[in-house]
Amino acid sequence: MAELQEVQIMEEKPLLPGQTPEAAKTHSVETPYGSVTFTVYGTPKPKRPAILTYHDVGLNYKSCFQPLFQFGDMQEIIQNFVRVHVDAPGMQEGAPVFPLGYQYPSLDQLADMIPCILQYLNFSTIIGFGVGAGAYILSRYALNHPDTVEGLVLINIDPNAKGWMDWAAHKLTGLTSSLSEMILGHLFSQEELSGNSEFIQKYRNIISHAPNLENIELYWNSYNNRRDLNIERGSDNTLKCPVMLVVGDQAPHEEAVVECNSKLDPTQTSFLKMADSGGQPQLTQPGKLTEAFKYFLQGMGYMASSCMTRLSRSRTASLTSAASIDGNRSRSRTMSQSSESGTLPSGTPGHTMEVSC
């Protein structure tokens, strides 16, 4: 696999006592659908998958994931896993604008680029971590290559193609709203946009003044033209790995994530609905999401000695069992919680849990 470029950069993040900056390498490789850029942090760990992230429309890997992976409690995780941050074509910092008439890859084709990345890096398995369009892309990849995916964290996933009513609403909105406003409505809740906080102003400025806005529109169009994943519980066309679904309450994609949860195997699925997190919980609630991610990894058999603090001490969290199961499984993959003990006891094996925190 041909390598087009490789540069040394340093991740800018607040360092914990005794830590040194983590070196990163950015690569670009050719695929059947064009070039794709990705950044690798850390070194491969024996018998451990890589964490591979994929960002949403209007963002790149830094604006989508940096607050989460720079969070203090996340350092324990990134010390134990190599991670690969994929930028969709034309979304990386400094990306040139595609020429007029450029045929941007479909989301299915973007998923088909991932094997080229893993082949280049000589990585055999991953834990996927995607948001929005990125969650869809990683799900499509997992459906096509189930043996290479050990787990998935899917934030704001919509597994369905747009229906006629959705298309009509999208076209009508396009007549009265700018591209940046439509994308902001995809990323954030109406409450957040109405509040117009400094946080929202920051991302509104990032998107509306992006030098590659034409490229962003191409990615946006591919997302809106996505096919239905056609996932069905109990069928051959389903996600076969452990899955953690995440959505903020009142987020734009709450109903879609709930529907996705109903289509997945309850013995393999955890559903995390986060209060006060808006449309992008990885940006607004990195502490809670880090704690949930650690617990998810523990359920997969990794980081058994990791300490849990935040979720376990939450007094406002609620648990509801969403489904029962047939058969047994060897590892608990449910979200469960104790409000006082400071520990996270296992939930009833084989149940999908909803955790509001």
UniProtKB/TrEMBL annotation:
Major location (coarse): cytoplasm
Start and end residues of each stretch annotated as Disordered: 319-357
Subcellular location: Cytoplasm
Pfam entry (one): Ndr
Keywords: Cytoplasm, Developmental protein, Differentiation, Neurogenesis, Wnt signaling pathway
Coiled coil: none
Cross-referenced SUPFAM superfamilies: alpha/beta-Hydrolases (SSF53474)
Similarity field: Belongs to the NDRG family.
The protein's role, per its UniProt record: Contributes to the regulation of the Wnt signaling pathway. Down-regulates CTNNB1-mediated transcriptional activation of target genes. May be involved in neuron differentiation.
PANTHER family, sorted: N-MYC DOWNSTREAM REGULATED
Stated name of the protein: Protein NDRG2
Gene this chain is encoded by: NDRG2
